[in-house]
Structure formats: structure tokens, C-alpha cells
Amino acid sequence: MHEDPQFDPKPPDADILCVGFGPATGGFLTTLSRGLAEGGIESQAFPGMPPQVICYERADDISFGVSGVVTRARAIRQSFPDFDPAAVPMATPVRNEKLIYLLDPEGATRRPAWLQAADWILNAFSSLSKVRHHAFDVPFVPDFLHKRDGYVMALGQFNQWVGQQVMMSGQAQIWPSTPVAEPLVENGKVAGVVLAGDGSEVRAPLTVVADGPVGAVSRRLDDIFGLPDGHERDEWALGMKFVIELPEGVDLEPGTVYHTIGYPEPEIFGFFYVHPDRVVSAGIFVPSWMQSPVRTGYRYLQHFIQHPFFWRFLKGGKLRSWGAKSILESGKHGEPHLAGDGYARIGENSGSTNVLTGSGVDEAWLTGVQLGEAVLELMREGKPFTRDNLDAAYVARRRASWLEKEGEIAENARNGFQKSLLSGFLGMALDGLSGGRLHLTRPRVRKPPQKLIDAYFGRLPHSYVEKLVAGCLKEGRPIHDALMDAVGWPEIPFDGQLLVSHQDALLVGGKVQAPSDAADHVIFRDQALCQSCDTRICIEICSGEAIRPGEGAVPAFDREKCVHCGACLWNCPSANVSFAAAPGGLHSAEN
Amino acid sequence: MSFDIIVCGGLAPDPLQSLEPAPGPALKNEMMLPAVFDPWAAHALYEAAHLAAQHPGNRLRVACLAPKAKLQQVMMIMAQKLPFELIPLDGASNGFSDAMPTAEALASAIQALPDLDRDRLLVFGGWESATRGAGVVMQIVGERLGITEQFLAVDELRIDNGALVIKERVEGGRHMVSRCAAPPAVLAWATGNLPEPPNHPQTGMANMRTMMPALQKAPPTATASGIAFREVALPKVQRETRIVKDLPAADIARELAAWVKE
């Protein structure tokens, strides 16, 4: 950060720089490009020319590395009143939405006693409860959760559709494969960005930060400017999903949506969306408040799709694609400073995700639209992008919108999960059904993940756990498979089509890759800390098996397998992981 | 002597995607898949840029036939690698385009350039494409432009006192070296010798000042022909993965040799 009262700023290279292309930037650039096309706004960087707008995206294509989604699309439809889902591959209206409670068919999950009792009751009175395929069809979807007027989409395809329209307008450039290392901060103002790779500085009067949950620019801004008082980013989840082609003879209605709870662990929520042309997205969320240190998204996802409720559809299907991403679930409680001199923040990293409604894409889009409208207003009035001006034009719009009101309701919805699963569900229901008026108090201290011994207390002997862990370390493999096998999870019956090894999944659909000349973007800062770590959750959670046990119990990183989900960052109990912006990752366009 | 270099190229599906044939014939979800600049044409472009950098009077342009929206996306990456001007043509481009109308469209676009200097003209391209590999587009482009000096499967070009010294692949794994006194000439490249350049965002920003307006004006280009493709098949891929750590290279080689013998 440059600090010099006599500092003479260099001339700008563009008018507006965006960091990251996702739904938030999509909403921003859609709104901005339409306004700029109306004319009458001149570039500050290049007088006499139209404004120069550049967006830098880390991934190798604007359709890579994002997720499947069901969304009410309220803001998206406001931007596209005539939105035709048929124009976007894999998009379709929601037609049938259910909340399913999945029972445990194997008896291997970490179910507390009260949940086991609930399962027993449901099974005992199955003629009344209508438990079928080890699943209970909850008779209603709570109003705060429903998506019945929305769309099922593949966000990669939606991003591509939006990005093409923005670029065809000629009003903005979107640069894939261009990671941004950090903001360029001079005299307390954001003056542009520093690009990863060649380290070049690019300057602009406004930098729009939309680099997602684990974006390097966002994190650096938080380091420099801090979070508002009382705010913290302490709730996360790893979302992982498969895109599956249904087997011949299985036809599910496109637009069918199942939200699930109860399995493969009671803390893991799941989803199942049916796209057109007999394709489904099935996935799970592994939350940071799951106390188990065995946080393997991949193995749990394989069990999830084999649950009898889904396996009757999926058996014989084919894995088309696979992907994972972190989700910043702190929502409004993790909201950073939304604007400052020379910058504004939109999207997931701006705290827009709503954990109560389970919705983030539409909210992110809306933040982009609001900033787009604000920027057009300021440019038309010839006002500079100062904190005060951005607060008045952008933040005020956000505060007055449904995003803010719903964010406030959701702010305390997850408070109970830190205490126990039961209080978590009760707290969420209380908050959601009362419209946020009633909620549990936020715990002062977050519980760290359990130690391995504690996690398996009463299920596996202490000495046996130690033996398993030592064996895995010696063989250089994660511990989750050995521990899950030991507590009764069945082996995965690999079929080479849908149930494939984690390593093979890296080669399905759009394969994972890293440029040959790139440096490692994940670094373990203090190796002694890693050596003394009991759990090494970074290895267990790693979505691409890019982090494995290495020499001397220090994790080893293989960048060619990294999907840039960033889960290692928030799963390290010692904050010992350095996670930099870098190109590469998944090449899946169906996620 | 300076050169006016024009590289012809198209797009191909990102090689990291899994392709599946579909009735029609077509590739399943082809329009959904991300695209890259055709790898064979990319080799030609890297060689062309290397040559263009040798003399300040050299000029490098890329004539590219592809759906405009896809082309725009791909150019956002290619433009970061090298300085060049773009001659975009908005039309269908995939493995089911016929070589003749594709070549005619490219040749017409080159012919129509108002500042084309035939005495300095070098037309580069790939000797085949990753989408179909008909291997004849560059010859037809040369024919339509009336260029008789044509070199196929080029691996190396050297300039010697204004003459072109060209190394081509020929049968039997050999190379043939020819000397061409002067342009115009068509060079359809094999792999060349140059790697993919890293991205330079500043180069991209400079390129985009001319590319964005050009893309906005990309003329719609018809490439329909009377050819009907009946069927498409892809090579069968069988994966048998075994995860082994720290296996000596000699053991890997031995295992591979045994597998090949099988």
C-alpha cells in the first residue's frame, strides 16, 4: 500500500475494472453496458472516447468453475423481463419442488440420539409417515425456502449467455485466464489492481470487486480496511456436485427440485435438480459447523447419490461433469465495507448470500444491478467514485431493497448450529417462520473442529484411530476413507461410469489443469504448525485431492489438481494456508 | 524486406472437454462447450508473430471464421498472447463445415482488404484443423488468391536475404528444405518450434482497441455446401487408472512397453 501525501497518481488505463466474472458482475455489466449504449457518457481515462470497461476473470473461461443452481431469479427477470430459459442450455422453470428428509439406510451416519429416535418413529409408523426408499417427503416446503417460481440452471451456461451479450454490446471486455493478485492501494484509495503473473498494475477510477467467496482482492481489502464493527466471516460450506446423465428409461420431469436434509450426515444439506434432456445436478454442502474433521465432499457425495431415494433414478447413469466451490455463508453478518474511495464490492464476498433461503445467485445479481445503476448515475452527473458518492448511490440502493430486508431476517438464522444440530434446526425454523423476529443468540466463540479422537469417541477405540491415522500418513493418503470404512460406511462400488475414483473425476467433463509455467498458489506458511496439526482437514476437504500428506506430515500441494474451491483456506484451524489468485482449474462448462 | 502476414484460423472445442457424437451428425452440446483457437492454426500464429517481431515494417493479421459470440470469447485470450489485428468473419465453424466454402470465405476476406500488398503477402494457417482435419483449406485459400508457392506441414521458416527458406515434413519422417525467392506464399504449418506464449494483459488491452470495433462489424458469412455428413464417431477411450506414488521412471517405461506389446 502506497502512502505518500505528495503522491502524484499515474494516468488511468481504463474507467472501470471488474475483478471476477460471476452473477454479480453479470448483473453489473448488463446494467452498465445498456446504460452506456444510450450514449452521453464520456471516458475519464480517454477523453472523447466511450468509457473503457474491463473485467478480469481468473478461470480459463467465463463458464468455468461455477455451480448449478435453483433460483427464484427475481432480480434476473427484472433485468431480462422476457427471459426465455430455452435460450440458456440446461435452464428450465421449476415445476415440482420438495423437501425430503433422508433416513440413514446403512446406520453409519453421525446421528444424535434424538434423530435416531425420529428415524425409528418414522419407520415404525411408515404407513402413516409414508416413508418410501428410506426417505420422508416433508409435506410442505417452508415459504422462506421455496423456489417454485424460479429456474433450475447451470450457472456456467448462464454466465456464458450473459457474458456473450455483454461482449456483443461492445461496451465491456471480459478477460478470462487473468487472475488479479491484489488491489492497488495508494493513499488509502483503491487506484486499480495488480495482475497476478506479470505483476503489472492497471489503474482505473473505479474497481469493482466481485471475486467470489475466497477472492484474493477481497481478502486483501479486508486486511487493509478491516470489517465493520461486529462483523465476521465465520460460516462457510463446501458445495460439491455431480452433473449426471440419467440412464435410459428414466425420465424425470425437468424442473423437479429436491432439497434434502439428514444424509449423508445430518449436518449435510443436499440438492437434486432436474435439467432438460435427462440431465440432473446432485450435490451436497459440507458446512464449517460440522464438527467432524472427516470433511470429505467427494466420498460423502458418492454416498448421497447412492441413497435409495436417488439411486432408483441414477443407477446406470453417467457422470458428465463434476465441480466444487466454497460458499461464504456468513451473509449479512460477514458483510464488509461495501464501498470506499475508488472501489465497490458486490456479490458473494459482499455478504449477499442468504443462508436462510438458500439463495445466492439472484442476490449477487441484484447487487451488481444496483452498482450498475449507481455508477451510471455518478458518471452522468460527473461525480467521482468516492466513498461518499458510492455510499449515496450504491449502498443506499442496496439498503432500500429486498436484499437488505431478507438479509437481516437471515442474519441470525444459523446461530443455533454452533451449539448443536437440534438447536440449529430449531433456531433456523424459528427465525424463518417468524420472519427474523425470533432467533437464537449468536455464540461468542465458534467451536473448532473436533479432534479425531473426540470425533470417534464411543465409535472406534482410541488406539485403533491412531493406528489408522498412522497407516494413512505412512501411505500418503487422506484418512477419511479408512475412518468411514471403519464406522460402517459401505465401500463405493466403482462402475467406471458414475461411481469413479476421485482421481478419475478430475478427468470427467471439463478436466482440471494448471498452466505449466504457473507457481504453486497454495502454500503452507509455517510447516511446524502443520506438523503439530491433529486433523489436517485441508487434506480431507480438498475437492481435487490436490492436497495430500507430504514429507514430514506437512501437506503437499499439486496445483495441477486444484479446482480453486478455496476450502483449504477456511478449513485450516491455524489460518496457516496462503491461497493466491492463479489461472487454471476446472474446465467444466456444465457446472 | 517486410512482410504482410495473414494467419487463417478457426475455433475448436476446448481439448479438455469430453466430446460425444450425436445424431445429425453433430457433437453433443457442442455450442455449450467452451472453444479455443484451433491448435494447428495457433502454431502458425506463434510462428507468424515471431517473424513479425523481426522487422518493424512487418504486419500481422488473423483472419478467423467462427460464430461471433464464440470468437469474441476466444479472442479475449489470444489477444493477450501476441500483438495482431483481427479480420473476423461471423459464420459457422466446426467439424461439419465443408473445406471449400470455408476457404473461399477466408480468401474473399483477404482479397477484399484494401491495403493488401501481394508482393509482401505471406498466408499462414494450420496444415489441418482439430475439428476435422480435412487438410485442404490452406491450399484452396492459396488457389483462390492465385498464390502458387504453397508449402504444407511446415516446421520451420527462415528468412535469408529476403528469400524464404522453408522446412516441410515429408513422407518417412523426413524433412524437405525449399527456398522460395519472395512472397507471396502460403505456408500451412505443422507444429513449428515455438511454445504458446504466456498471457500479457497489457498486450491484450492494446489489441482490443482495434479488435473490439472489428468484432462489432464482423460480416455474416455463409459457409453452407451441398455436402451431407451421415455419421460421426469418436475414438473409444478406455481408462484404467491405478494410483501409484514414487514409481521409478524405468518401471513406468517397462510397464508401458509391456502394455504396448499386448
Task: List descriptors.
heterodimer; A: 591 residues; alpha+beta; FAD/NAD(P)-binding domain; D-Amino Acid Oxidase, Chain A, domain 2; Alpha-Beta Plaits; seven-stranded mixed sheet; six-stranded mixed sheet; 25 strands; globular; B: 262 residues; alpha/beta; Rossmann fold; eight-stranded mixed sheet; two-stranded antiparallel sheet; 6 helices
Q: What can you tell me about this protein's structure?
A:
The complex is a heterodimer of chains A (591) and B (262). Chain A has 591 residues and is α+β, with helices and mostly antiparallel strands. In chain A, helix 9 crosses helix 10. Chain A folds into three domains: 211 residues, 3-Layer(bba) Sandwich (FAD/NAD(P)-binding domain); 155 residues, D-Amino Acid Oxidase, Chain A, domain 2 (2-Layer Sandwich), CATH 3.30.9; 135 residues, Alpha-Beta Plaits, CATH 3.30.70.20. Chain A is built from 19 helices and 25 strands. Chain A has a seven-stranded mixed beta sheet with strand order 6-5-14-15-16-13-17. Chain B has a single domain, classed as Rossmann fold (3-Layer(aba) Sandwich), CATH 3.40.50. In chain B, the strands form three sheets. In chain B, strands 7-6-1-8-12-9-10-11 form an eight-stranded mixed beta sheet, with helices on both faces. In chain B, strands 2-5 form a two-stranded antiparallel ribbon. A two-stranded antiparallel sheet of chain B has the order 3-4. In chain B, strand 10 and strand 11 form a beta hairpin. In chain B, helix 2 packs antiparallel against helix 5 and helix 3 packs parallel to helix 4. The longest helix of chain B is centred in the last third of the chain and has 16 residues. Chains A and B meet through helix 5 and strand 8 of A and helix 2 and helix 5 of B.
